[in-house]
TrEMBL record:
Coiled coil: none annotated. The keyword tRNA processing does not apply. GO terms for molecular function: 3-methyl-2-oxobutanoate hydroxymethyltransferase activity; magnesium ion binding. It catalyses: (6R)-5,10-methylene-5,6,7,8-tetrahydrofolate + 3-methyl-2-oxobutanoate + H2O = 2-dehydropantoate + (6S)-5,6,7,8-tetrahydrofolate. It comes from the Eukaryota. Belongs to the PanB family. Its EC number is 2.1.2.11. It is an enzyme of class 2 (transferase). This is 3-methyl-2-oxobutanoate hydroxymethyltransferase. Pathway: Cofactor biosynthesis; (R)-pantothenate biosynthesis; (R)-pantoate from 3-methyl-2-oxobutanoate: step 1/2.
Amino acid sequence: RPKVTIRTIRRMAKQKEPISMMTAQDYPSGLMVDRAGIDTCLVGDSLAMVTLGHDTTNPVTVDEMIHHCKAVARGCKAPFLIGDLPFGSYESNPEDAVKVALRFVKEGNVEAVKLEGGKEMAETVRRITTVGIPVLAHVGLTPQRQASLGGFRVQAKTAKQARALLEDALAVQEAGAFAVVLEAVPEEIASYVTQQLTIPTIGIGAGNGCSGQVLVQNDALGMFDRFVPKFTKQYANIGQIMVDGLKKYHEEVKSRAFPAKENTYPINEAELARFFE
Ligand code: KIV
Ligand code: NA
């Protein structure tokens, strides 16, 4: 596969070709994103919930995220690779944010970083972009701020909030973000915001008018069912396939159907005879 670069993304946006993005959190999930031909891959901090079992995305640390980024990068070669800056690592000041972004690129082997926020993060987006790291912004439902939003819920439902969303998206574009994620906003609003921007929008729960779409891989493949957002779509039921396979293994161990002859190593007859003599 040819490498997807930021220029590929810009060309797709210009030609109105939808951009596909999928999350990954380890070597195999990254490898499958690459093999499936998906354009861009996000090591999302949603891995805190779907891979590490936390209740929110907030507990995951920079070191943990970098550990996952490294693993994804070993398998995911052609897609443009983006790492998600975790809660608490970039909000305090742009200086710290630049340092964390540099670590994601140097140690995590990602090509770009994502951060949540609009206007209030514009200076940070600018600073990270200035040192040569492309930034994907994220507005609308920003899961890291779920406490102040009152949970994981749809955003921009009022005209006032929708206007604020547009201003946030324009602010991060102005600051140099190469694209912006719109999460959990009504389709009409997301479509309008997309039309007003020159950078691509990547929607999740934002309807069909965005420049691209992203889903969390564990949701899309049926590997996480503790919390299923309305906007997700399950394309496969890998969780059930895993349980079926594991059950069969368990039964075969109990019945001694496994391991069979073909799963065992042979030994030369003469050596065996010598061993027992
Ligand atoms: O963490 C994540 O997976 C994300 C995407 C859903 C955009 O932020
Ligand atoms: Na995220």
